[in-house]
Inverse folding.
């Protein structure tokens, strides 16, 4: 089976790449990490293939990208790359053009961009463990409208201190306030970005570098970096507790994408090979 946008349950948004000035929107998914914090799941599977509600995390992301008008996707892979290539292939079953870019050494979250051919339009870049209801096409339009070199998706996350917090005057040792279990709110990165082509010049080929460092480099050059506020459903599935929370809420927030993924699995199973100790002994990739 190939993705059929005419099917009622598989229909895609009418928003296609040509609404962005005639160029198809391109997404880059960072899928090369070891996923050690998500063990024991990742002892036998790469993190993007860890299922939530029976569906691999990355499969949900691909269906969402297609829904929001993205047509070209590059997977940056390293750990168990052959499993990802075998499962997702060329992306045609999702209605996408999917390319695989292999890292031979860990490159961080921004370093893999230097391995890709230069791009002429902004690219969406995201982690492969983000489960959300983020409208990727709206984020892309926001980036263009605000003319930043880099846009960072932001989520306001509450952080509770499970202790009584004391404010003290250090000079007199007098207690000024006592707050029991206060809650603070921080704007955090969602692990989803839109990157202008110029940013790639800040990354040397083979350099291991993360996005916080790229933000600092841009600010040092007085480049504009903007934040896209989001207040919907978002889980960074980095740890076992996050996986459990996402599983409990996904049916409520992403039911349609789960239904699409299950339909694809029933009609056209990908049949990935079984993991083995020597699976990644040889590099594997397809052109990007």
């Amino acid at each position: 089976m190939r993705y059929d946008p005419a099917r009622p349950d598989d229909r895609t948004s009418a928003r296609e790449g040509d609404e962005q000035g005639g160029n198809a929107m391109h997404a880059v998914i960072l899928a090369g990490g070891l996923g050690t914090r998500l063990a024991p799941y990742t002892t036998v599977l790469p993190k993007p293939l860890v299922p939530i509600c029976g569906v691999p995390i990355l499969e949900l992301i691909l269906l969402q990208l297609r829904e929001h008008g993205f047509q070209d996707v590059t997977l940056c892979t390293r750990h168990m790359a052959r499993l990802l290539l075998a499962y997702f292939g060329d992306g045609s079953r999702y209605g996408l053009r999917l390319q695989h870019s292999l890292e031979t050494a860990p490159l961080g979250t921004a370093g893999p961009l230097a391995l890709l051919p230069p791009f002429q339009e902004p690219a969406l870049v995201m982690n492969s463990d983000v489960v959300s209801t983020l409208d990727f096409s709206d984020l892309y339009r926001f980036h263009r409208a605000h003319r930043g070199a880099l846009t960072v998706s932001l989520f306001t996350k509450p952080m509770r201190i499970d202790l009584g917090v004391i404010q003290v005057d250090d000079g007199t040792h007098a207690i000024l306030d006592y707050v029991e279990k206060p809650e603070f709110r921080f704007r955090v990165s969602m692990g989803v970005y839109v990157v202008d082509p110029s940013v790639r010049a800040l990354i040397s080929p083979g350099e291991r570098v993360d996005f916080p460092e790229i933000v600092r480099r841009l600010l040092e050059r007085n480049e504009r970096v903007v934040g896209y506020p989001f207040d919907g459903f978002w889980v960074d599935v980095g740890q076992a507790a996050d996986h459990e929370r996402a599983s409990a809420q996904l049916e409520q927030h992403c039911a349609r994408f789960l239904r699409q993924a299950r339909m694809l699995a029933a009609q056209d199973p990908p049949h990935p090979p079984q993991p083995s100790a020597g699976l990644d002994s040889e590099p594997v990739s397809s052109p990007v």
Remarks:
- The CA atoms of residues 75 and 100 lie 5 Å apart.
- Helices lie at 57-67, 81-88, 136-146, 211-220, 240-253, 255-267.
- The longest strand covers residues 183-195.
